Amino acid sequence: MPEVYLSIGANLGDKVGQLRTAIAELAAKPEIDILATSKFYQTAPVGGVPQDDFINAAVRLETALTPSALLEVLHQIEQGLHRVRKIHWGPRTIDLDIIFYDHETVQTAVLTIPHPETFNRRFVLVPLLDILPPTDPYYAQVKVAQTQLGDTQALQVFNGV
Asked: Is the pLDDT of residue 49 over 80?
């Protein structure tokens, strides 16, 4: 089955609870097998919209779903957790993004894989490094991008988990 990496985050309501619920809902799908979950990180928001800090993580999974079918499942989970898309890069109860899908490149009107902002965001890169095997072809690229970003975006392990 294809191996997939997700970035997940929340900054409204019970942030940790929503991440855990999203992971549990993914694991409950018969077409999805969760392989690993990163530590949880508290991260500053990016994009310039004033809002609370996020709790972010990464998930490694295998799935029988196509990229578009997986995106539909992610959107269903987001809707179930009351995700509202009002402000671009604004606050959200949950955000589930496909970062990598089995080393494929996908470009449609609604889905781009690898995610176009992957290598610009510490809140994606640092959790990915928790679960991305060093032998994976993306590992070196993720490591270099994380090093280049340095401490430009606030991030720390969330100790409340």
From this structure: no
Catalytic: 130?
A: no
Q: Which amino acid is at 91?
A: P
Tens digit of pLDDT for each residue in 92-146?
Answer: 778 899 999 999 999 999 999 999 999 999 999 999 999 999 999 999 999 999 9
pLDDT digits (tens, 9 = 90+) for 65-99: 999 999 999 999 998 876 565 655 557 778 899 99
State the DSSP H helix or E strand holding residue 36, giving kind and residue range, or none if neither: strand 32-37
Residues 6+ apart with CB under 8 A from 50: none
Q: Which of 33, 53, 97, 136 is catalytic?
A: 97
97 is catalytic: yes
Query: Is 95 annotated as catalytic?
Result: yes
- Active site (annotated) includes residue 33: no
User: Cα angle at 158 between 152 and 161, to 5 degrees?
Assistant: 160
Show the 3-state SS of 49-107: CCCCCEEEEEEEEEECCCHHHHHHHHHHHHHHCCCCCCCCCCCCCCEEEEEEECCCCEE
Question: Parallel, antiparallel, or unpaired: how do β-strands 41-43 and 54-63 relate?
Answer: antiparallel
Any residues with CB less than 8 A from the CB of 56 and at least 6 apart, and which?
A: 7, 8, 9, 40, 41, 43, 123, 124, 127
